[in-house]
Specification:
single chain, alpha+beta, Alpha-Beta Plaits, 7 helices, 15% strand
């Protein structure tokens, strides 16, 4: 018997209920509960409205990490992959990318999973914060020590950027000065040549 024969037999034996059960059905998007919306106030109301505007399209969010011996790209990848495998086990489709040594990008094509992904990440001990839809949610790793360390790192980066900008400006000024000298020499050479004629 060939594979086609076996497939035909399998189709004959499969009941409509089994076909329906095995067929892929994407999860249905949650609607906005008007009763809960009426009762909600302040930040809770803002969050409900923001989450209701999430479509079934692609979504991205960033998670900042902090762990002992922080931060290396390899260790951050391990943590991100662990989180992603747990979320995939829960039926969520997502991709993770380490974009900096302590920052991970989560992307999903099923936007209705984004809230669950954010909630999971924020509960992890290595999570400092999750940023999604221009809103930042702090995690358990956002400690005063981490804040001090982060401020120090940002100050160093800013100092490096300022020094680079200053150096670039100095190079640019030197090049402009060199061009002006060349022009002067060229003009002086042309006027000397004209005077000799």
């Amino acid at each position: 018997m060939t594979d086609k024969d076996w497939e035909k037999i399998e189709e004959e034996w499969e009941t409509p209920e089994e076909k329906d059960e095995y067929e892929y059905k994407p999860p249905k998007q949650k609607g906005l509960d008007m009763e809960k919306l009426k009762k909600a106030k302040g930040k809770k109301l803002e969050n409900m409205i923001a989450e209701s505007q999430v479509t079934s399209g692609p979504q991205m969010m960033f998670a900042t990490l902090n762990y002992s011996d922080c931060c290396t790209k390899n260790r951050s990848e391990e943590i991100a992959n662990k989180w992603a495998s747990m979320l995939r086990a829960g039926g969520m489709e997502l991709n993770v990318y380490v974009i900096e040594d302590n920052q991970v990008l989560f992307s999903t094509n099923a936007g209705f999973h984004a809230g669950e992904i954010r909630d999971y990440a924020v509960q992890q001990p290595e999570c400092v914060a999750v940023e999604w839809n221009q809103k930042r949610m702090p995690g358990p790793a956002e400690t005063p020590e981490w804040k001090a360390w982060d401020a120090e790192i940002k100050a160093k980066k800013k100092a490096e950027q300022d020094a680079k900008k200053e150096a670039d400006e100095a190079v640019k000024k030197a090049e402009e000065k060199k061009k002006k000298k060349k022009k002067k020499k060229k003009k002086a050479g042309e006027s000397t040549a004209k005077a000799e004629l």
